[in-house]
Amino acid sequence: MCVEELAISKSVSGFVEWQPKVKVVEETWIRRIADNSRRHGFVPVETAAVEYLSTLQIKGEIDKEIYCLSKLGSTTTRDLALHYDLTIPTARYVAEHQGKLAFPFKRYQTQKVWRGERPQFGRYREFYQADIDIIDVENLPDFYDAEVLCVGIKSMLALGIGAFKVGVSNRKIYEGYLKGLGIEDAVPVLRLIDKIDKVGSDGVQKLLVEHCGMTAQLAERCLALAHVDFNGRTPDALMAELGVNHELFSQGLTELTRLIANVELIADAEVRAAIVADLSFVRGFDYYSGSIFEGKFVDSPTYGSICAGGRYDNLAEGFGTRKLPGVGFSIGLTRILAKLEEKAAELADYPKAGCDFCLILEGDGALNPTLVATGKQLRDQGFTVNTISVAKLKKGLQIAARLESAVAIFEFDQKCVMKKLSTGEQKEVSPGHAGLLDAKAFRES
User: Fold this and answer.
1) What is the pLDDT of the chain when averaged over all its residues?
2) What CATH number was assigned to the domain covering residues 12-154+306-344?
3) Which residues make Cβ contacts (< 8 Å) with residue 401, sequence separation at least 6?
4) 244 pLDDT higher than 80
5) Would you give the end-to-end CA distance of the chain in angstroms?
6) Is domain 357-444 annotated with CATH 3.50.50.60?
7) So what's the pLDDT on residue 165?
8) φ, ψ for residue 301 (rounded to 5)?
């Protein structure tokens, strides 16, 4: 093979490949999210990675980030693409299968998604998202906003990722506030206000003047709401303080008040402590119509969102079906894992990639019956047991340590011996069932 014909031994930028020790953490997280979701009555769903392009374009917000598919050498296209999130595929799934589903439909779904955006730390072209959604026909009681928020936060707490806060607000609040100021086309203004974390209040105020033609005074009033402390305030008191009275503004404040009251009723203290009312953020311009959620690390708020969600009045709008309102919560697993992997100590408490035991077969491969039987019994008891074959015992112990095995089991002087690799402590393995008990006790000591 010519040098020019060699394949490139380098991964594509933005497509993360974890080392085994990190991949084990990712798998652990996926299991914990599934377990928590099942405990709250959610059922698993997996949708196809490939959708019709027209399906993914139904909301129109992210066209430039869609990965389209074509067959190599083909002169025709079938307008297929990889999904960029799990919300639109869920809408299509529910619309297609609604006759077979029981409502309210509660689903959890953890899959990879693909976005053609510029890669940077914590932002990838391929990544795992973990979503939960509650969907009903025609009407979805607002209790479910609180439930999906609390279940989502409970899943995040189960990951053990350190301190985070989830801001809660309502899409109607800022839109109604702007309308109360006489701004009818609120979306362009909201898109600029959404940049407040990146450029600050002064930066947003400048953008509002430059791009929306506002006076400095009006731009300042637009941002006044972002600095209000909502906690303990009634909607009427808040509207009076800001000097804005609009039906949509009042409705959003009332719904947020009700959300917080429902959370107080159904959530435990740890979940409640992670939630904070925050009127400064707006999101999901093409999705959300009511409650909105956004979570960030406490010690790294500029890292950006690590979870998000909200309510949508008609998830399946555009699919020519019944009205299907829903509320969802999405966790950015890959984004969170990238941050914790940067701080290796944060992963120390998670399961290791290595096995509980490593059986070392030395020399010509002749097997010690006690060693083999002990390995089989340990696997039957649920322990993980690796087996390696080496020429020399010293080399085998080095490999076992590099594989992060907790205990090595090997033959020495015609005896079966265990060695705890973290301390060097050794013990002979008794034959039969006693050997199994010895090994279990030794591993757990």
Assistant:
1) 89
2) 3.30.930.10
3) 421
4) yes
5) 54
6) no
7) 97
8) -65, -30
**Mean per-residue pLDDT, 3-20:** 80
Q: What is the DSSP letter of 60?
A: -
Local confidence band at 441 (pLDDT 50, 70, 90 cut-offs): confident
pLDDT of residue 63: 67
For the chain, counts of helices (H) and of strands (E): 15, 16
Strands 275-277 and 164-170: parallel
Q: Which residue has the tokens 């731009």?
A: 219
- Phi and psi torsions of 293, nearest 5°: -130, 145
d(CA 422, CA 56): 51
Cα–Cα distance between 298 and 423 in angstroms, integer?
A: 37
What is the rounded CA–CA span in Å between residue 397 and residue 393? 6
Average pLDDT rounded to a whole number, residues 19-46: 95
> Domain spans of the chain?
12-154+306-344, 162-287, 357-444
Single-letter code of the amino acid located at 50? V
Range 432-441 average pLDDT = 69
Strand partners for 416: 411
Angle among Cα 355, 359, 365 to the nearest 5 degrees reads 145
Identify the CA nearest to 250 among candidates 141, 143, 168, 173: 173
Instruction: Give residue 186's pLDDT.
Output: 84
12-154+306-344 and 162-287 in the same fold? yes
Beta bridge partners of 307: 295, 331
Residue written as tokens 């933005």? 14
Segment 365-382, tens digit of pLDDT: 667 777 788 888 889 989
CA distance 323 to 315: 8
State the alpha helices, DSSP H only, in 267-331: 269-273
At residue 193, the pLDDT reads 87
Tell me the CATH number for domain 162-287: 3.30.930.10
Q: Buried (b) or exposed (e) across 45-76, using 16+ Cβ within 10 A? A: bebeeebebebbbbbeebeeebbeeeeeeeee
In Å, how far from its chain's centre is CA 136? Answer: 23
- According to DSSP, the residues that pair with 395 across neighbouring strands are none
pLDDT band at 411 (very low <50, low <70, confident <90, very high): confident
The upper half-sphere exposure of residue 184, i.e. CA atoms within 13 Å in the direction of its Cβ, equals: 0
Distance CA 289, CA 252 (A): 10
Q: Give the pLDDT mean for 336-363.
A: 81
Q: Which residues pair with residue 107 across a beta bridge?
A: 43, 133
Number of residues that this document lists for the chain: 445
User: CB under 8 Å to 348, separation ≥6 — which residues?
Assistant: none
